[in-house]
From TrEMBL, chains A, B:
SUPFAM superfamilies: Winged helix' DNA-binding domain (SSF46785). PROSITE patterns: HTH_ARSR_2 (PS50987). It comes from Pseudaminobacter soli (ex Li et al. 2025). InterPro entries: ArsR-like_HTH, HTH_ArsR_DNA-bd_dom, HTH_MetalResp_TranReg, WH-like_DNA-bd_sf, WH_DNA-bd_sf. This is Transcriptional regulator. Residues 5-100 form the HTH arsR-type domain. Keywords: DNA-binding, Transcription, Transcription regulation. The keyword Lipid biosynthesis does not apply. One of its GO terms (molecular function) is DNA binding.
Length: 112, 112
DNA sequence: TCAATAGTTCAATAACCTTTGAACTAAGGA
DNA sequence: TCCTTAGTTCAAAGGTTATTGAACTATTGA
């Protein structure tokens, strides 16, 4: 069960922006940004779409270098690649997170 | 010959990021950013692709609200929607432009 | 008026994206 | 060992994107 990640040098601006150009994936990173110190499990995003669908979107984010996915037991722990992104594209992640926090879909995970 | 632009309120983060998630379009905005006070003509981007192709990419940027296109005689004058974008997504455009300036494709227009 | 210039629109094609359910794998607990 | 939990992978369908050349429109200058 391999989870391929791009190296820092393999991350491109076009790929990162392309990956974030989707409401579901913006909602995912908005959630991750709420507490960056604590990685989240896949299951915590199931309000945003089906199990399969979330798996697909998380793979997109991982392949673009936006998130890192670690395997822990039967779970995956997902976190922002904050250091890599800040180094490559200073200020980008912060400005996106600030704007994404207000998005309607970002509220879905918090509801209940 | 209508050139529809979204209003400020119609511009979404996902659409803007999606529009910028492409090397050709990043190169276009990198060029526009080199001298924001001076709008550019379509023809100045023909090094980046065919006439038809550039027309397509410029339409994408316009529809996402990233650029404004004005008709002047038989030309189009294209400029960044700096004020709208800065108001909606503070810091976003600057961080993207700073990173896009170093991109290989951005150099193509300057060559000769 | 006629031709050149600047750019758009159309149709076609190939490639990629999104979404789904069903089948799969791998770890942990009873 | 067997079942449950957590998530991935597969195949299929339908939609969108990117690219091209040919045909088109609109403005300008001769």
């Amino acid at each position: 069960m391999s989870l391929p990640h791009p190296t820092t040098e393999q991350i491109t601006l076009a790929n990162v922006l392309g990956a974030l150009g989707d409401p579901t994936r913006l909602a995912i990173i908005a959630q991750l940004a709420r507490d960056e110190a604590t990685p989240m499990r896949c299951g915590q995003f199931w309000d945003l779409g089906s199990k399969t669908n979330i798996s697909y979107h998380l793979a997109k984010l991982r392949e673009a270098g936006v998130v890192r996915t670690e395997t822990v037991g039967t779970s995956r722990l997902i976190s922002l690649r904050r250091e890599d992104l800040d180094k490559l594209f200073p200020g980008l992640l912060d400005s996106i997170i600030a704007s994404a926090a207000d998005l309607p879909l970002a509220a879905v995970v918090l509801e209940d």
